[in-house]
Q: What sequence folds into this?
């Protein structure tokens, strides 16, 4: 659309000594090539892992890196992965889902409520509280993992699901995002109208506020889901029983065990593939629902 | 409409309660506990090895002195900074370039490239490192691991930074691209009518207007770099080039869990938090000054 409306303008520019030749339908090669190089760089390791997972162990070290194999290596690798240690890989996958879905859901509720309260109400201490929470964005959550472990260990609360989920529920950034979004999208007039109609504060929050905030809540959910799914350090310090591990921990453990013996690489490779595919699928499916402009919009405020 | 504009309600306090409670419990309390621990030490008890009933006593600044006086602690900070010096500018420059290319007129394959470059964000950091580990290992490397020593004493910094850049590039690109799309188009058309080339528009008109977003992205990348842990920890089993104290967080982990000296670990992690906050504030201030100057 832009190309059509500015076609004449670009021709005028070219006529007055501009460097770009051609009309509106000509491909602009330089950005296209730069983008393609970037795409290849980002996709290459993933393509390699897909191909490598089709190889048997001896083929992995002998055949050409980007030539797939069709000798049934893929299925025997898969079988070996799911049979490993009485199927603990499945357990890790289930754990990852529990941590990420449970954590992201609770976190969205906690941060959404807090953001709404800070965005739509002024009360004693609210401004001050918001400042403290925003300042906590500077505090790297991950660096707190070790003090969190020390404290929880003192209280005997490590080595369970809660030890991994609870510390990740409050995200200063998510609260900030929800507050800014509530301020701009939940209009006071609508809330006032609900009040005049006799709705309680609770009711107008649940049926108006929460509904209007849906785009922000979906974004927070996805950010938190990916954050928790990818977190390594927190489960790494909190858990020492491998039946509680999420996928990331499990795969790391597999690599350590197999680190010395190249004979086990194929299990790790196919494990990496299996752990990427579901998340990449969810991600590609949901990518039009989540609003990155909310993330970048925060800086304009 | 002045009739009871604000009814008395405890709803906001109730809504904030879970967040505040969790914040106190999992951010403030552990932080405070770490500070407390950093000033303590273990005093040997009775028995043959001094392990019976050990007591915790006040140590003053002993743990901090130990951390400051330890060359390996500074080396670990140095390695972290080296990775940051490679990784942060690479992330910013590449993601800005890709965002500008996505926004360029008549560029092709835009949808495909955007998705492809965004894809690594869906790959967990540890898994990304495993992937690149195989790319680096001579035995399996499809990118010439036999001729290039990816774990060489200088190369290893690039190898680690590469994994980190690969993982965050797409996210930053989309953030920058989104804010680019939000800029007023008329300005670019006006510049075009004035005879500015596509490249000139990108560099002289679009780039300065991205300053606030680039500030945010830089600060986030910097915080990410200071928290470097996953990549070197995951690469450690496959190479001798990475020690168990390679970067500060690995050092803290080793202190606290391998050497069982949680007091030194606490002192080091508190120092790191102070350094991170200082670096973030400094970066923010510098970038804001730069942005203000470029506006004039």
A:
């Amino acid at each position: 659309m832009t190309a059509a409306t500015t076609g004449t303008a670009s021709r005028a520019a070219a006529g007055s000594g501009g460097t770009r030749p051609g009309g509106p339908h000509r491909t602009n090669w330089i950005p296209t090539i730069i983008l393609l190089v970037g795409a290849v760089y980002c996709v290459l390791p993933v393509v390699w892992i897909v191909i490598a997972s089709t190889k048997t162990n001896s083929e992995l070290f002998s055949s050409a890196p980007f030539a797939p194999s069709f000798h049934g290596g893929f299925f025997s690798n898969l079988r070996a992965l799911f049979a490993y240690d009485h199927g603990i890989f499945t357990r890790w996958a289930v754990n990852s889902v529990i941590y990420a879905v449970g954590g992201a859901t609770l976190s969205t509720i906690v941060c959404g409520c807090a953001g709404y309260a800070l965005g739509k109400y002024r009360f004693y201490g609210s401004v001050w509280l918001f400042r403290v929470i925003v300042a906590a964005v500077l505090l790297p959550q991950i660096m707190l993992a070790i003090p969190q472990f020390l404290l929880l260990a003192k209280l005997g609360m490590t080595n369970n699901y809660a030890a991994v989920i609870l510390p990740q529920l409050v995200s200063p950034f998510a609260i900030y995002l929800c507050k800014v979004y509530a301020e701009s999208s939940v209009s006071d007039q609508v809330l006032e109208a609900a009040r005049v109609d006799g709705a309680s504060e609770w009711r107008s929050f649940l049926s108006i506020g929460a509904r209007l905030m849906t785009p922000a809540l979906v974004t927070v959910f996805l950010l938190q889901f990916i954050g928790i799914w990818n977190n390594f350090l927190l489960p790494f310090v909190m858990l020492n029983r491998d039946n509680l591990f999420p996928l990331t921990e499990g795969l790391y453990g597999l690599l350590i065990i197999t680190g010395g013996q190249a004979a086990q690489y194929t299990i790790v490779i196919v494990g990496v593939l299996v752990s990427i595919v579901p998340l990449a699928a969810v991600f590609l499916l949901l990518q039009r629902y989540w609003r990155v402009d909310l993330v970048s919009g925060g800086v304009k405020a | 409409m002045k009739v009871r504009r604000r009814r008395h309600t405890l709803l906001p306090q109730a809504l904030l309660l879970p967040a505040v409670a969790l914040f106190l419990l999992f951010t403030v309390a552990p932080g405070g506990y770490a500070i407390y621990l950093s000033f303590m030490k273990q005093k040997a008890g009775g028995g043959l090895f001094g392990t019976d009933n050990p007591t915790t006593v006040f140590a003053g600044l002993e743990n901090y002195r130990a951390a400051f006086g330890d060359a390996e602690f500074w080396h670990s900070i140095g390695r972290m900074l080296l990775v940051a010096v490679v990784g942060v500018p690479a992330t910013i420059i590449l993601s800005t370039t890709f965002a500008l290319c996505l926004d360029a007129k008549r560029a092709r394959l835009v949808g495909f490239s955007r998705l492809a470059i965004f894809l690594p964000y869906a790959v967990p950091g540890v898994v990304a490192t495993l992937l690149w580990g195989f790319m680096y290992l001579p035995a399996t490397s499809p990118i010439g691991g036999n001729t290039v020593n990816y774990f060489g004493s200088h190369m290893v910094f690039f190898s680690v930074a590469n994994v980190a850049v690969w993982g965050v590039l797409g996210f930053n690109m989309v953030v920058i691209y989104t804010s680019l799309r939000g800029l007023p188009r008329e300005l670019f058309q006006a510049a075009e009518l004035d005879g500015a080339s596509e490249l000139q528009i990108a560099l002289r008109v679009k780039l300065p207007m991205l300053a606030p977003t680039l500030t945010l992205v830089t600060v986030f990348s910097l915080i990410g770099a200071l928290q470097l842990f996953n990549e070197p920890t995951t690469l450690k089993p496959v190479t001798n080039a990475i020690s168990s104290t390679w970067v500060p967080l690995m050092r803290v982990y080793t202190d606290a869990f391998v050497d069982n000296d949680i007091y030194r670990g606490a002192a080091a992690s508190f120092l790191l938090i102070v350094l991170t906050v200082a670096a973030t504030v400094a970066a923010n201030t510098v970038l804001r000054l730069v942005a203000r100057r470029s506006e004039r």
In short: Confidence is low (pLDDT under 50) at residues 1-5 of chain B. The longest strand of chain B covers residues 40-43.
